[in-house]
# Entry
Amino acid sequence: MSNRTNSLPGPDNITRVELENGITVLVYENYAAQSVVMTGTFVAGSIFEDPAKSGLAAMTAASLMRGTHTRDFDTIHAGLENIGANLSVSGGVNRSSFYGKSLAEDLSTLADSLNDVLRNPAFPVEQVERLRGEILTSLQIRQQDTRYRSSRAFRENLYPNTHPYHHSSQGTLESIPEVQIADMEAFHRRHYGPADMIVVIVGAVNAQAAINIVRERLGDWRNADQPSALPIPDLPPVEETRRVSIGIPGKAQSDIVMGVLGPSRKADDFRAASLANSVLGQFGMMGRIGAEVREKLGLAYHASSRIDGGHGPGPWSVNAGVNPANVQLATDRIVDEIRRITAEPVSAEELADNQAYFTGHLPLQLENNDGIAGSLLNMETYDLGLDYLVNYGGEINKLTRDDLLQATRRYWNPDAFVLAVAGPDNVS
Amino acid sequence: MNDVTRHVLDNGLVVLLKEVHNAPIISWWVLYRIGSRNERSGQTGISHWVEHMMFKGTDQFPAGYLDKAIDREGGNWNAQTSMDYTAYHETLPADRIDLALRAEADRMMNARFDAEEVESERTVIISERQGAENSPLFWLGEEVQGAAFRVHGYHHEIIGDMTDLKTMTRDDLYNHYQRHYMPNNAIAVAIGDFDSATMLARINELYGSIPAGEKPNLFSRPEPEQMGERRVRVERPGNASFLDFSYRAPAVTHEDWFKLMMLDSVLSGPGGPGGGNVGNKTSRLYQALVKTELAASIHGGLSATIDPYLYSFNVTVRSGRTLEEVEAVLEAQIERVREEGITAEELAKAKKQARAAFAYGTESVNSQAYWLARAENFDSYTWFTNYVARLEAVTVEDVQDVARRYLRPQARTVGWFVPTNGKQ
# Structure
């Protein structure tokens, strides 16, 4: 209907500033909506924690919103909820993150809250214990969740226990009781700081005004002891297939996760692998796997593949939920598809289809503030460059069938992968 | 939000158009006025299954063709079956939207329902239900709905009862399709980067020639008045307890519905369009249940439904606490608001939250189209365009009045999920 094309976020319209203390601020003005999104990450992930206290980074992050030296729990949340805003801080493996949203007119209030919780947390005993109980209840519920249990078992078997990706950044029923307030205070003192922090703001705000809002609040933050980000250790590929099965009473369906070590987001062949993954388990109705397992055999409601990417070798996995009696059949068919995609190049049609999908999808992805902010954060986190979106189509369209085949072969071996199944306990 | 135009084609198809030129995309929805509320015993889940079959091909677009074609054009598509409607939608780059217009026009009349595809989809849908059954909350919700509605179609889950999923036939499905899929039982909505005159002309070209059918006589049986509290108890393996407190609520077209939305914002946090974007930690029930360490979480809300449905509170009991303790405090809070009402400050906060949430909830053309189609189905699209204004008109007296009339113990269904931890 329209031939008009909006200009993509790029070097001409993204304002990027590095503050003296190491914070990088990116702002994109978007007056199409009344809101503003402020999101970002900082170097305080679970990679720094002792596995016996797994969940320390995440619990520290969650505790920030529970009280500061100047505001108690109710004051923090009333300040946000009274204006229809929200703010959350969460732990991750490499980096922890924050996400806030408000009406554009309230950006200063949102930034005030962020600055306060990041820099002045009080870790009040009563609040921390309350939070601990909520986390433990949530973890107990997850013990009954087949998707969670299969996913955890998959990661624990894919990564050795010396690797940060082996552990859940959210902690376990055993580790969360071990996390003391003193641990959180020490973690915060050491790891929270401005070095290498990223702040992205997208919305109906003037870019310079938004940068000033950040600079006025976070610009004087210093932490001389803050360690740099740690690299994620590399691992050799899986050498033989490892299978693990978890029985949970009363379940009607089995969840399957199978996979291998995949590319990091910065890997040279990340784009080729992503395109191959789309052919395998995304494009159309969940790619070749969906066509076989769901459409042809009717074995599953969901059956798809994904690449996590991230800073290290995140998993490249296939996920499916099937009737417990069909686990073997579904797994066999999925392995057949892995074998096929590692044996022969995808067709020219499949390559063209998926290239068109990747490049054509950008306008939808960048429709609103959340989508744009997510893309900008990704670009800065992985050093993709401000011209990443502008050049994206060209980079995708350069890829060849052989590029996809090589990427698939580099990561997948149809005879060596990790398979985790969680389902009812009365099915062999 | 007020620049929506409404058109009715000669065959009865209602068309809503709104130009939004912020991004070069268009969202296209076609909603049919048929949902699980209209399903008879023995055919529960049929609307949802028909929705699945709409993706299994026509002569023009064979099964799987559009999945790929829409991805290839950089778009996405999906569908949803609700209690009150079945809807199909595509969002595409603006210069590619014609594919969506043609696809929906085609499958309004020409879906194939091949017998083999029906059987293959039977197991997919059973698998979908089994996936849901893995969650304790699915079992609790199903039991509460069944207890709250003895007569009305809201008594069964949208996905349907397992026995019906095993026994329905291809002819059952095809008859359901033929009786309900027609232009005069549908609402079409386009929002995005287009010129309205050009868009309307193209819609007329593609849909205008589809013949109107005999307007379906929708199966619907009103629920009699509830005459006392109903209780259900679900005992299954698990390790957490859940409470569902559900009161009879009015239809979305009733003026009381907006008053209850303001009450709910005070009790359990903002809901409605965009409501999930704002937290609920200052709400009364979070303060009374989570802050006191009785519960791990509390959520509440009422649905925008054609017929009277439920206003529900769902609580996850904190490990080490009991359902009895949680229920007693929840009931006390409800009695308190019935007796004392809410303050002017609480209402002002609820209104500000609703304005912000509405702004967030309408940032994408897809969500705007979704709400306009839904509103036109249960009332008029103006329900949505006037949404914030109608909330603004609510007074503190209104809120106490609806709390007194609707949150009566005699009009509620209480559900307990009791984990057995392996014990019988």
